[in-house]
Amino acid sequence: MPSRERERRLDARVAEDVVRAEYVVPTLRVRDLSASGLYLLDTNPLQHGQLIEFRLFLGNEDPIQVRGMVRRVDSGFGMAVEFIGISAADRHRIKEFIVRTNPKAAADFDRDLY
Fold first, then answer.
1. Domain map of the chain by residue range?
2. Whether the predicted pLDDT of 55 surpasses 70
3. How many CB atoms lie within 10 A of CB 109?
4. Per-residue model confidence as pLDDT tens digits over 100-113
5. Domain spanning 26-106 has what CATH number?
6. How many contiguous H segments (helices) and E segments (strands) does the chain have?
7. Which of 97, 108, 104 is CA-nearest to residue 59?
8. Does pLDDT of 114 surpass 50?
9. What is the edge-to-edge ordering of all strands in the sheet holding 51-56?
10. What is the pLDDT confidence band of residue 3, given thresholds at 50, 70 and 90?
11. What is the pLDDT of residue 87?
């Protein structure tokens, strides 16, 4: 941290542990999606085991806020992310979206989808 003499901001501040900033990274393409996770195409993927939070857009529907963990990294290509913080209702929305866009996938889901 710069010394107070060189610091140019004069406004009052708060401790760094009580403030959180979110920034938008470039939108990544999804190679495939399942009810348990997805594969993101990214030439500079995150590290294995790293947590990631993002919004998942399913067509024109409202986005789903997702927390995931990077489970596999293919350097220079992409990463597999497991959903670890997603509500049952949002997981259900993902299943419904998959069935609507790929009707053959319906057989892969439990009968309780409907």
1. 26-106
2. yes
3. 15
4. 888 777 676 655 44
5. 2.40.10.220
6. 1, 5
7. 97
8. no
9. 29-33, 37-41, 78-85, 64-74, 51-56
10. low
11. 94
Amino acid identity, residue 106?
A
The CA distance from 27 to 78, in Å, is 13
Q: Give the pair of three-digit tokens for residue 96.
A: 């419904």
Predicted confidence at residue 99, as pLDDT, reads 87
Tokens 């299943």 belong to 95
Residue 91 host element (H or E)? helix 88-101
CA 82 to chain centroid: 9
Residues 67 and 64: their CA atoms lie apart, in Å, by 10
Q: Which residue has the higher pLDDT, 65 or 25?
A: 65
CA diameter of the chain? 67
Locate tokens 């997805």: which residue? 38
DSSP state of 81: E
